[in-house]
Write a structure and sequence with these properties.
It contains eight helices and two strands, in the order H-H-H-H-E-E-H-H-H-H. The protein is an all-alpha fold and about 240 residues long. The protein has two domains: about 70 residues, no CATH class; about 150 residues, no CATH class. It has a two-stranded antiparallel ribbon. A hairpin with a 7-residue loop joins strand 1 and strand 2. It starts with a helix and ends with a helix.
């Protein structure tokens, strides 16, 4: 008995670990610890939000940390289930945006080459040697569009169906990253398109052929930019 008592003093029983807030791995430890402790003590969410904003935290940081816990009457904060991105979902998102880019580029190429055929640049190609090349590009782009666009629609439908069953999938980081990259590319194309339009206007070189090409690029990039911007704003309102 004495030996046991001395041993227990040397090797005390382990103390159960304190529950760890759910978002320690993803958020700043300071703000998460503060929110966790405040919710544990029954402080209201508006009061927590006001205190954090007074301390200089941004609205996104405050919202993301508060949203990590479910609003309930349970004595301690209840963590929300975090969305898990599987390798399959990452593959589907990457493939969806890849097929989107291929479809947009192929459709633009078809329209560009059609303009080249029906509104040829006689000064640059007086003998019309580019007709065969334009038709080959139209054929290649048509084949790419017939493969990529239906695949894009199918993947989009499958991902939308999965998000309708589990709304947490909307918080997928790779989805948001690819969406913002797409917005960035589309915005860059639109800006470049407008620069080219103004440049040719100032040089007095605005032709019907050039205007149609500018409208083609602007319409495709604008449609992509408008849709994904609308989708992000819709998601923010629903959140």
């Amino acid at each position: 008995m004495r030996l046991f008592s001395h041993t227990s003093k040397l090797f005390p029983s382990p103390i159960p670990p304190k529950p760890v807030p759910v978002s320690y791995r993803h958020m700043s430890q300071q703000i998460d610890s503060f929110v966790y402790e405040a919710l544990t003590k029954g402080v209201s969410r508006p009061a927590i939000k006001a205190a954090l904003k007074d301390a200089g935290w941004s609205d996104d940081e405050v919202k993301q940390t508060l949203d990590a816990y479910h609003e309930s009457d349970f004595p301690i904060p209840v963590p929300r289930r975090k969305p898990y991105l599987s390798a399959r979902e990452a593959f589907m998102y990457l493939l969806m945006f890849l097929t989107l880019y291929i479809s947009a580029f192929s459709f633009g190429t078809i329209l560009f080459q059609t303009i080249n055929i029906y509104l040829p640049d006689v000064l640059s190609n007086p003998y019309g040697y580019y007709y065969d090349g334009a038709r080959q590009m139209i054929r290649w782009s048509t084949a790419a569009l017939l493969i990529a666009y239906p695949l894009f629609l199918w993947i989009s439908y499958m991902l939308s169906k999965a998000m309708s069953k589990d709304s947490a999938k909307r918080a997928s980081k790779i989805r948001k990253w690819l969406t913002y990259i797409t917005l960035f590319i589309a915005a860059g194309v639109i800006i470049g398109d407008l620069i080219g339009l103004v440049y040719n206007f100032l040089g007095g070189e605005l032709t019907l052929r050039f205007i149609l090409k500018v409208l083609t690029v602007g319409s495709i990039a604008g449609a992509i930019f408008g849709y994904y911007l609308w989708d992000l704003r819709k998601e923010e309102k629903e959140a």
